[in-house]
Amino acid sequence: MSSMLQGRWWGWGFRSAVMLYFVVLIILPILGIYGQSLSAGWSTFMDNIMEPLAWKAVLLTIKLALISTVINMLVGTMSAWVLIRYQFPGRRLLNSLVDLPFALPTAVAGLMILLLLGPHSFVGEWAEKLGFTILFHQPAIIIAMVFVTFPFVIRAVQPLLEEMDSSEEEAAYTLGATKAATFWKVILPNMLPGILSGAMLAFSRALAEFGAVVLVAGNIPGKTLIASVYIFGEIESDNEIGATAVSVLLLTFSFLILWTVNYVQMRRKNG
User: SS in 3 state form for the chain?
Assistant: First the structure.
C-alpha cells in the first residue's frame, strides 16, 4: 500500500513539475506578450499594427519567408531523396551536416553568410561584375532564411521515405508505369505530408529569424527591414507596446501554422 501511494505521489509530482515548466516558461510569457500589446487599449494596438513601417516589415517578412520556404520544399525534398535512396562516399557526413543550422548560433550563421556574400568574397565580386549586389538586399535575407530552416523539410521527409513500402513502386513498374508516373502517383503522395509539415515549420521559423538576418539585411525601412529587426528597433526606442503588437502578429501566425501542422499529422495517422 505504501509503495502504491509513493508511486502515485511520484507520478503526481512529475506531472506537476512538467506542467509548472510549461506554465512558467511558455504560457506566462505568451500571455504577457498579448497582455502588454493590449495594455494601452485596442485602438493603440491597431495604431501600432497599422503603422506603415510595421505593416511593411510584416508583409516583407511573410513574402521572403514564403520564398525561402518554397526553395526549401524543392531542395529539401531532393536532398532527402538523395540521402535515402542513394549510396555514395560521404553520405553519412552530409546527413549529419543537415542538422548544422540547428546547432549553429544564428549570429554565427549570419557572419558566415556575410563573409560569403561580402564585397571582398568571390561571390560578392562576381555579383558586382554582373552589376548587382546580394548583401544588404532581399536575396541575402532569403539566403539566411533558407540556411536556418534548411533541415525542417529534409528531416520531415526522410522518415516517410524510409517507411515507404517498395512493393507499391514495384507494382507500378509491373503495370507498365514510367519512373516519372510512379513518382507523381505513388511516391510523391506518400511524401506530401512530410513536405507540407516541414514547409510550415520552416515558414514559421523564417518568420521569427533575427540573428542570421540582422547582419546581412541592411535594415532599410520598406525594403530590407523585416519584422524581427523592426521589433528589436522598437525595443531600443523604448516602444514596448509597438514591439509587442508586431510580436503578437508573428506569434498568431506561428500558432496557426503549428495547429495546421498538428492537423496534417493527425490526418496522416488516422488515414
Answer: CHHHHHHHHHHHHHHHHHHHHHHHHHHHHHHHHHHHHCCCCHHHHHHHHCCHHHHHHHHHHHHHHHHHHHHHHHHHHHHHHHHHHCCCCCHHHHHHHCCHHHHCCHHHHHHHHHHHHCCCCHHHHHHHHCCCCCCCCHHHHHHHHHHHHHHHHHHHHHHHHHHCCHHHHHHHHHCCCCHHHHHHHHHHHHHHHHHHHHHHHHHHHHHCCCHHHHCCCCCCCCCCCCHHHHHHHHHHCCCHHHHHHHHHHHHHHHHHHHHHHHHHHHHHHHC
